[in-house]
Design brief:
Elements (H helix, E strand, L loop, with lengths): L2 E13 L3 E2 L3 E4 L5 E7 L6 E10 L2 E7 L4 H5 L6 E13 L4 E19 L11 E14 L2 E7 L4 E4 L2 E2 L2 H6 L3
Antiparallel strand pairs: 1-2, 1-7, 3-6, 4-5, 6-9, 7-8, 8-9, 9-10, 10-11, 11-12
């Protein structure tokens, strides 16, 4: 491998692709596929079948240092278009040099909860919010790695849409 990832240098949170939302920490959504337990005659035990392209509910967590205007704006119980832009440092083993690549995570979210945090001398409040994720796409250097869109039957991973046959079978 010519490029070895070293670390995220920094990232920024945007809403609607243009509104800078300030200093934050993000916990990205896990992508968990739905499963169905198969048991009965003809099977020597149980099998957990993974349902093609079907995903469990996803959540994004954003933590701000305090209840900033941005944190409160994202608390509004409406749809928010979140754009996390990341500068990731790599070591190019061929060129023997550092390289910065752009990662991006794009999500459509609705807030589930808001915690203003705590108050203590000489400390951050650690304000946080958790969001239900309706759409989730990940990019590295402008290349789409995945796109998960349950409402539109899209589960695109590595350039292949695993829900295409499902949409076809449903006449979509």
């Amino acid at each position: 491998m010519a490029k070895q990832p070293e670390a995220y240098i920094d990232f920024e949170v945007y809403e609607g692709k243009t509104n800078y939302m300030g200093i934050a920490r993000a916990t990205l959504p896990n992508i968990n596929y739905l499963t169905q337990q198969i048991t009965g005659a003809g099977i020597a035990g149980n099998v957990e079948a993974v349902l093609t392209g079907m995903v469990d509910a996803m959540s994004l967590t954003l933590e701000f240092r305090s209840a900033t205007d941005a944190a409160v704006t994202l608390m509004k119980p409406v749809k928010h278009e979140i754009d996390l832009r990341v500068a990731e440092q790599y070591w190019d083993t061929v060129k023997q040099a550092k390289q910065i690549l752009a990662d991006k995570y794009v999500m459509t979210v609705v807030p589930k909860n808001f915690s203003p945090g705590s108050i203590a001398p000489a400390s951050a409040a650690d304000t946080s919010s958790e969001y239900s994720v309706y759409y989730y796409a990940g990019f590295k250097n402008n290349k789409k790695l995945w796109e998960i869109d349950p409402f539109n039957y899209i589960c695109n991973v590595g350039g292949k849409d695993y829900m295409a046959d499902v949409r076809k079978a449903l006449g979509k």
